[in-house]
Specification:
Shape of chain C: elongated
Distance between the termini of chain C: 117 Å
Chains: A mainly alpha, B mainly alpha, C mainly alpha, D mainly alpha
Oligomer: heterotetramer
Number of strands of chain D: 0
Number of helices of chain C: 27
Structural class of chain D: mainly alpha
Radius of gyration of chain D: 18 Å
């Protein structure tokens, strides 16, 4: 029941919020509910067993038996951190948008919570149709978040976002239906099914070098859907628009979690379901990943709008994630999972910071700033730390992910791996150049404006940033504590990807497990360094 | 030509002729009068088919009640001769007539082709006494189709209320806000 | 005491200093901040000494290693947080913490008028922490952490006065240029890891021990060595990545002394020495190292001749001296490289601090054309600077002589060496002697060229003078740790080459016979010293005896002078040919690929759908009769279909 | 079927063809006329055509069943109801535009 609780608690919260009579109750209630669902998700630490690759905390209820569709939830090392990242970011976002969202706060928070359910659902759904439902459901609240609380071109941006993503997922829907029918024909049960564990057993025909064969077509149908969501290089143009127009919390959730639904999809569905095609066409994704890294960095470099710069940096960072995934080795995949978390945290933090300065000056144009370091020292320090994380300086989280990805990519293909390293340089170029122009030098017109003096971060804003900063260093200094949760699953995936199977883990009844969950949590953290 | 067939052809000619007037006359009053005529002719047709009761109802309900309604509304509007009785558009007009012709033709062809096989050889059922026939009809309506009959009643009630409500709305859907 | 404990103190003391000063970054109390920072480094130094002591003695271990916890463990990659002090890192850690302490001490006085002394000391401490990580890290990855960390601190310290756009830009330039090197370093790590399956130095060295020497260019070890050398190029400012170092002089002068002369920039050399058993297997890579080193040595020295900023002269001098160290590495004389690294740390730190003292005295004036005759105002600074000057131009028995001469001799005699490399080294040394003498002459000697009534240069306070004196002593005697055999033999007591002995077990030596005899060594030594001496005399005559001569020569060789004064137009070249095209190309990419191509392509799809929609929309007029028409058409068609209309018609007309 | 026969023996076909004729005329009226009231009248014509069919089938079915006639009642009821609502709508349209042209129904869209 834990997973259902985690997934649907936000939905219940949304209903609760909708019943609130007074406007000024909404934010505290939302924050409380957000924190509550985060705390509930922490129970995962106690219930989750990192030593097995099997699916855990499984819930299975037939939904549409005739089609083999079921309400099937489960979690393993691949989705473990993504779930926690999602639940973690919600309270941060709510607190971060305390003053940024000034109209219709009720609707906004409802949308945020519904979105939360959709995102969590797609991370734990182990049934393709259920996954698809959650995957698509996530579009709706985001559509409204950008479309109602966004900037001036919000309608354009939100429509573009919606249609782009929708288009890809329709292809995926076709592929899902095809898979379900294939399962009916091929599997011994002779029954349609969307159960991913059953579908893993399919051996879909693949002919190397030919495009028109089932596995290749299915592979690309799924890939396009997820590549748009990630977004990978040629499908990325919705992202900068959506990010620039989205309100700060929207950007944070979009960059922090929603993009990961794409890369998670690759890991959960594309690679295990279509192993031959994945291997055969890995070079396409390595290539597009490299192009994304370099292209994103170059274009980010010349953006006049700081939010757009961060958005393009997302394209670059997600390029790393794609490279890591399609390195198809332990280093790359582990690095990718790590990089997903990093990106969620550091890009989320960057968007929050950009939002904070935007609230003060109502401008995002880099040229209008300058000399902020003198005026807003605390803001500068935080921004700098996040910048470091974004450009993957060692001892911050970014380094671990990027290093592992590059290591994996280098093993998979020396050529692409070496090219990707250029991104390391360019990343420093665009971030530091932006940093220099905004924070150093003479004070810009917005900064020196005596009529509107800038105030340094308030206590609330510091509280928002604190957990992110702590995580940046924690994940950078003690990565093993995080890596150990996904280690077994990743190794299982990589080593058996040609015949990937996932069993269901049935835990020994442990009566004291729930009681001692706090103890166990701290023990697991304390033991982390020794874990192999 | 027997008397029956003569009666049929006269009634049919009256029906079709008055229907033509309905759709061609430019003055709505003429239209309504022609419609009344058509109703009466149809009642005659019913009678020729031995459906005496239905023929009576046709006269009372249609030629009586419905026609009165039409005429009253027309009087209320005080409409003159219409300058343009028919809607515009040569092309669409052509399509309209063509499609109607096709429908009519196809139906006629269908009748032509199918009656032979189904009923033409079958003689008309033996005529029964009008009283018996009406009794049979009542039996059907109040037993077999009781639910539908009652539903009809409810429908009529709702329609009556709805019509009153609708005509009382100020400005209809375009009420000035 | 336990090694774990000592290492912890050694590493954490600067980190704690950083945290304390970092938390009170707003404080203007420079004395307190400086004391905390200096104390932290001093503690670190003491701990370092205590650890290094363990290496002495008859049955002393070759290295002291401690492991704290696993940092990363993924697949076959296991990266423990482990540290080692062996004979190489012992040398380095002592230099870094020792010279570091002195420079911290000096900084107290230097930064006394600054707005944010606490922040400065925090950065300085953090730098030291990272430098120690770099030096002590037991694996390549940990070294890389320090490697990037020192780059970061360098960025922060160069841009310390960030309100000045130029200085902020210099910081960024340093970081980005370093990053290019770091990228190479990363590739080097990858190559080594996939070749040997480990990143630990100990295991790398034991695994390469049995490997044959690679002949060609494409072998994995050669590749790894070249990748790593790219890293070294960035950090140690070699051609073509040296451009950041002269600009890095924008930072406070003690920073230049610590980071950009004594410690960080030598990290590349240190790394190569550390991996010498690997490099020695790739002679071709070593040739590259040697040639780049020699070229840099000459190239930077020639630029140094025409610079007028006191710190810029020293910066180019540093680049040039680093070139010497790489030359040494390239010819397989890793010991000589280490030796020069140490002596260079002494005398260059001394001279930077001296220049800091001068700048402090002249109220932030850095142009040597506006100095002159400072000898009488700054006697201590002058005296110590003279020691540094003699040391760098290589007059025996000062430190520079021994180390530089060993490099030159090895360049000549090593199996990997070449006469051309030797000649380049001698030219570099001559240029060094010339520009250093010029610097001395223009700064300290001759007549003052500043307004003596307005500017009153004052001698440095003791906190600044003490480090100068200590470093001067070290510069004077530092060379005796590596007395060449030929000299040792004629000295009383026959002192051996202690350094060579100390490093013997830890570094590799090139296979093959050294050529050249003791007589030859004497002759070459004589040649190089006399050439340097002549160059110094020439400079003396140019700038002290006949101050007009430089201008005459500049007029006589206008092309060369312009070329040198503008630093061979390298910065301009990079700017015009790399940075500008990159920026404008990116703008074009954005405009064409994103906006005009991808977006337009998606719009085409959208417009197509929209076009179909608006075509279909014309059917939906809202005209009820039209709708009725559609219904009737549909019914007609349905009837025709149901009654098999076409078939019937065919029957009707066909047969 | 010889023409004489067709004239003498009136059977089901005759009624059905009459019904078809009436129906098409009604349809033409619906499609071509502009006056809402006339259109309503045309609809009545079409309904009557259907009624003729019902009664004719009822009469000529071999088992003389009355279901067809029962249906006629329902159709008539619906027709009456439809006329009532249609005329009410026409009244509202007339109130607004002082005319009962069908094109004003275009304005009924939300």
């Amino acid at each position: 029941m834990l997973l259902s609780l985690i997934v649907f608690m936000p939905l219940v919260s949304a209903i609760l919020i909708s019943l609130l009579p007074k406007e000024n109750w909404i934010r505290p209630t939302a924050l409380f509910l957000g924190l509550a669902q985060f705390v509930v998700s922490l129970v995962l630490f106690a219930q989750y067993d990192p030593s097995t690759p099997a699916l855990q905390l499984v819930e299975f209820v037939p939904w549409v038996p005739a089609l083999g569709v079921s309400y099937f939830l489960g979690i393993d090392g691949i989705s473990f951190w993504l779930v926690l990242l999602t639940t973690f970011l919600l309270p941060v976002v709510i607190l971060g948008s305390w003053t940024a969202i000034d109209k219709k706060p009720k609707g906004f928070h409802i949308a945020l919570f519904v979105l939360q359910t959709a995102m969590l659902g797609s991370f734990v759904a182990m049934d393709l149709v259920l996954f698809y439902v959650f995957f698509e459901l996530s579009l709706v609240p985001m559509y409204f978040i950008v479309g109602i609380w966004g900037g001036t071109r919000r309608i354009y941006a939100t429509t573009k976002f919606f249609i782009y993503t929708m288009l890809g997922s329709l292809l995926m829907l076709l592929a899902i239906i095809y898979l379900m029918f294939t399962a009916q024909e091929v599997l011994p049960a002779k029954q349609m099914t969307a159960n991913i564990l059953e579908l893993y057993k399919l051996d879909i025909p693949f002919i190397a070098g030919q495009f028109l064969n089932p596995q290749t077509l299915l592979f690309f149908a799924f890939s396009v859907a997820f590549a748009i969501k990630v977004p990978m290089f040629p499908f990325h143009t919705w992202l900068p628009d959506a990010h620039v127009e989205a309100p700060t919390p929207g950007s944070v959730v979009l960059a922090g979690v929603m993009l990961k639904m794409g890369s998670y999809g690759f890991l959960r569905f594309v690679i295990p379901l279509f192993p031959e095609a994945s291997e055969h066409y890995a070079w396409v994704f390595l290539f597009l990943g490299v192009v994304g890294i370099i292209y994103g960095a170059l274009v980010a470099m010349v953006q006049p709008d700081v939010k757009k710069l961060v958005a393009y940096s997302s394209v670059s960072h997600m390029g790393y994630v794609m490279m890591g995934l399609f390195a198809l080795n332990t280093y790359g995949v582990t690095g990718s999972i790590y990089q997903m978390l990093n990106h969620g945290i550091s890009t989320g933090a960057l968007f929050l910071l950009v939002g904070m300065i935007y609230e003060r000056t109502h401008s995002r144009e880099i040229e209008k700033y300058g000399g902020l370091a003198k005026v807003l020292p605390i803001f500068t320090i935080l921004f700098f730390i996040v910048t470091l994380s974004s450009i993957a300086v060692p001892m911050t989280n970014g380094f671990v992910g990027e290093f592992l990805i590059l290591l994996g990519a280098f093993e998979a293909s020396m050529f692409f791996g070496s090219l990707a390293v250029i991104g390391v340089v360019l990343g420093a170029v665009y971030m530091l150049w932006m940093f220099k122009r905004m924070f150093f030098g003479e004070e810009g017109e917005l900064v020196s404006d005596k009529k509107h003096p800038l105030h340094d971060l308030s206590l609330r804003e510091m509280v928002v940033m604190a957990p992110l900063i702590v995580l940046i260093f924690w994940m950078g200094l003690l990565p093993n504590q995080f890596l150990q949760y996904s280690k077994v699953s990743v190794e299982h995936l990589v080593s058996t990807k040609d015949a990937y199977q996932l069993s269901i883990h049935t835990p020994q009844p442990e009566s004291d497990a729930q009681l001692a969950f706090g103890m166990k949590f701290f023990k697991s953290v304390a033991q982390a360094p020794e874990a192999k | 030509m027997t008397a029956d067939s003569l009666l049929f052809f006269i009634l049919a000619a009256m029906t079709v002729g008055s229907a033509l007037v309905v759709i061609l006359a430019s003055n709505p009053i003429f239209c309504s009068l022609a419609l009344a005529m058509a109703m009466i002719s149809v009642a005659g047709i019913f009678a020729s088919l031995n459906a005496w009761f239905v023929a009576g109802v046709q006269l009372i309900v249609y030629a009586g009640a419905v026609m009165v309604l039409f005429v009253m509304v027309l009087m209320l509007f005080d409409l003159k001769d219409e300058v343009r009785a028919f809607s515009r558009g040569l092309v669409s007009g052509f399509f309209k007539i063509a499609s109607v012709a096709v429908i009519g033709g196809v139906i006629a062809a269908a009748v032509w082709m199918s009656t032979e096989t189904i009923f033409s050889t079958a003689p008309a059922a033996p005529t029964v006494n009008a009283t018996v026939a009406t009794k049979q009809l009542a039996d059907l309506l109040f037993k077999k189709y009781l639910f539908s009959f009652e539903a009809m009643g409810a429908l009529l009630l709702i329609i009556a209320i709805g019509a009153v409500a609708l005509s009382r709305i100020e400005g209809g859907t375009h009420a000035d806000k | 005491m336990q090694a774990e404990f000592l290492f912890a103190i050694l590493l954490l003391a600067p980190l704690i200093g950083f945290i304390i000063n970092g938390l009170r970054w707003k404080s203007k109390n420079y004395l307190l901040a400086g004391s905390i920072a200096t104390g932290a480094v001093a503690i670190s130094f003491i701990a370092a000494v205590l650890v290094v002591m363990k290496l002495f003695g008859a049955d002393a271990p070759k290295a002291v290693t401690v492991e704290y916890f696993k940092w990363m463990a993924v697949g076959g990659l296991e990266v423990p947080v482990a540290f080692v002090i062996d004979h190489i890192s012992a040398l380095m850690v002592l230099v870094v913490t020792g010279v570091g302490t002195l420079i911290h001490l000096f900084s107290i006085g230097y930064m006394s008028h600054d707005e944010r002394p606490s922040k400065y000391f925090a950065y300085l401490n953090f730098f030291l922490f990272n430098m120690l990580l770099l030096i002590l890290g037991e694996n390549l990855l940990l070294m890389f952490v320090g490697w990037e960390g020192v780059g970061l601190c360098s960025y922060l310290l160069i841009g310390f006065w960030f309100s000045d756009k130029e200085k902020a830009a210099a910081g960024m330039k340093a970081f980005v240029t370093n990053r290019i090197g770091d990228a190479g370093f990363l590739l080097g790590i990858f190559t080594i890891f996939f070749l040997l399956g480990t990143v630990s130095f100990d295991e790398i060295i034991s695994k390469v021990a049995g490997m044959p020497v690679e002949v060609g260019w494409s072998g994995p070890i050669t590749l790894a060595a070249l990748f790593l050398f790219i890293g070294a190029m960035g950090k140690s400012a070699q051609i073509p990545l040296y451009v950041w170092l002269p600009d890095a002089m924008a930072g406070p002068t003690p920073v230049s002394a610590l980071i950009h002369a004594a410690t960080m920039v030598t990290a590349g050399v240190y790394m190569i020495v550390r991996l010498s058993p690997l490099f020695i297997l790739a002679p071709n890579a070593l040739h590259v190292v040697a040639v780049v080193g020699a070229a840099t040595a000459v190239f930077a020295a020639t630029i140094g001749i025409t610079q007028f900023d006191i710190k810029k002269v020293l910066a180019y001098s540093t680049v040039s001296q680093l070139g010497f160290m790489f030359l040494a590495c390239g010819v397989g004389a890793f010991g000589a490289a280490m030796f020069h690294l140490v002596t260079h740390a002494f005398f260059k730190a001394l001279m930077f601090l001296g220049s800091g003292s001068v700048i402090h005295a002249m109220h932030e004036e850095q142009d040597i054309r506006k100095m002159g005759g400072l000898k009488k105002y700054l006697p201590i600074t002058h005296a110590t600077f003279v020691v540094g000057w003699i040391a760098i131009i290589g007059i025996p028995p000062f430190a520079g002589f021994f180390s530089k001469d060993e490099i030159l001799w090895k360049a000549f005699s090593s199996p990997l060496g070449h006469k051309g490399l030797w000649a380049a080294g001698v030219i570099g040394a001559a240029c060094t002697a010339f520009y250093m003498t010029r610097l001395m002459a223009l700064t300290f000697w001759g007549k003052p060229r500043f307004d003596e009534h307005k500017t009153h240069p004052h001698e440095a306070p003791p906190s600044m003078a003490i480090p100068l004196i200590v470093l001067a002593i070290l510069s004077a005697i530092g060379g005796f740790m590596g007395i060449p055999h030929v000299i040792g033999e004629i000295l009383p007591g026959h002192p051996g080459n202690w350094l060579e002995h100390w490093l013997a077990g830890s570094i590799a030596a090139p296979a093959g016979e050294a050529h050249g005899s003791a007589i030859m060594e004497w002759i070459l030594m004589g040649i190089s010293v006399s050439i340097a001496g002549l160059a110094a005399l020439l400079a003396f005559s140019f700038y002290v005896i006949e101050p007009d001569r430089p201008k005459q020569w500049a007029a006589r060789l206008p092309g060369l002078h312009r070329l040198l004064e503008n630093k061979y137009f390298v910065d301009e070249f990079y700017f015009e040919r790399i940075i500008n095209p990159l920026v404008s190309g990116s703008k074009a990419l954005w405009a064409f690929v994103d906006v005009n191509f991808i977006d337009r392509a998606t719009f085409v799809v959208g417009d197509f759908v929209r076009g179909m929609g608006s075509t279909a929309r014309t059917l939906q007029t809202g005209n009820m009769q039209q709708y009725a028409l559609y219904i009737s058409i549909a019914i007609a068609l349905m009837f025709v279909y149901l009654l098999e209309g076409p078939k019937r018609l065919a029957e009707l007309f066909g047969g | 079927m010889p023409i004489n026969d067709a004239l003498l023996n009136v059977g089901l076909s005759h009624y059905l063809i009459l019904s078809a004729l009436l129906f098409t005329l009604g349809l033409l009226g619906v499609l071509l006329r502009r006056n809402v009231i006339v259109i309503l009248m045309s609809i009545e014509l079409m309904l009557n055509a259907v009624n003729i069919t019902f009664v004719a089938f009822s009469r000529y079915s071999p088992t003389a069943n009355m279901d067809g006639q029962a249906m006629v009642f329902f159709v008539m009821t619906i027709a009456a109801a439809e006329a009532a609502v249609g005329l009410a709508l026409a009244t509202t349209i007339f109130k607004k535009f002082r005319e009962v042209n069908i094109r004003y129904f275009e304005h009924l869209k939300g």
